[in-house]
Design goal:
This protein has 99 residues and is mainly α. The protein has helices at 5-10, 17-32, 36-58, 75-84. The protein starts with a helix and ends in a 15-residue tail after the last helix.
């Protein structure tokens, strides 16, 4: 994959947070003094970080909302409350699906 520092900077949000600072610094150095060695190192680090990010993203749990749980009927109301408020407290009977 032939990447340049501009493409890497544009896709930093698809990398691990821990790698973004170093990649940004390497891209700035590439902008000032482009060398094949630094470009190769930067692209390699970028690809490893992006692959790790994609793997983590693929492993995220996918929530399900079984219709037999009472809280499933309130899903939209709860979502709106979470979007509008910093803290939301959900109270309900044991087994109602609060988790």
């Amino acid at each position: 994959m032939n990447l340049n520092y501009r493409q890497i900077l544009a896709e930093l949000d698809r990398c691990l947070q821990a790698d973004r600072h170093v990649l940004r610094q390497q891209c700035r150095r590439l902008q000032r003094q482009p060398t094949a060695e630094l470009l190769s190192q930067t692209v390699a680090r970028f690809q490893v970080s992006r692959d790790a990010y994609d793997q983590r993203l693929a492993k995220l749990p996918c929530p399900s909302y079984p219709p037999e749980l009472p809280v499933s009927d309130k899903r939209q109301t709860i979502l709106e409350a979470i979007q509008q408020h910093q803290v939301v407290i959900i109270a309900g009977e044991t087994g109602s699906g609060k988790t």
